[in-house]
Input
Amino acid sequence: MRDLAAEIHSCRLCPRLVEWREERAADPPRRYRGEDYWARPLDGFGDPAARVAIVGLAPAAHGGNRTGRIFTGDRSGDWLYAALFRAGFANQPTSSHRDDGLLLDGIYVTAVVRCAPPANRPTPEERDTCLPYLERELELLKSCRTIVALGGFAWDGTLRALRHLGEQVPRPKPRFGHGAEASIGRWTLIGCFHPSQQNTFTGRLTEPMLDAVFSRAGELSR
Output
C-alpha cells in the first residue's frame, strides 16, 4: 500500500486535473488562506485488513485537496466519519486533517478519481486513467468482501474496476440506488447516496439512511 500511495501522490497524468488542483491551492477561499495545501492526488485511507471498502467520487477542492486525506476537512467527510464512528468503524466522529488522530478499524476509504475535478465532474477519460489505482487497492485489500459506493459515479467506477479485475459483472448492469446490492465475485457492492450537501441539506440522505447502509455492510462482511 505504501508503494502504491507514493505512486499515486506523484501522478500527473491528467493535465486538466493537475491544473485545477494546483490553482485551487494557489488561490484558496479566505477561510483557508495561509494553509499549506496538499494539492496532489490522494491515496486511500484506513485499515489495510479492512472487510469493507468505501468508494467515493473524488477529493473536494478544499477538502481532501487541502488536507491530504480523502473525505477530510469538508461537510461530506463530517457526515461520513460521524457515521463510521456510530457504526464502530472509527475511533472518533471527526476528520479535520491528516494528523488528527483518526483511526479506522475494519474499513478503508478511497475514490474512483484521485484529484479534485472542476465542478466535481471528472471526464470519462480522467476516470479511466485513474481507475487502475482503485483496481490495485481492491486487489491489495485481501480481506475486503463488501464495497459501499457513494453515488452513481462511484457505483459505475467500481463496476468497471471489478470487471477489469476479471470479475463477471451481471448483465444488465446493476443499477445504482440507495441500498441497492449486487454480488460480484467475492464482493457485495452496496449503493449509498453521496453525503454531499446537495443530498444532506435537502433530506435526500439522512443519518438513519447512512447508518443503515453501514449496518448492512458490517453484517455482510462478518
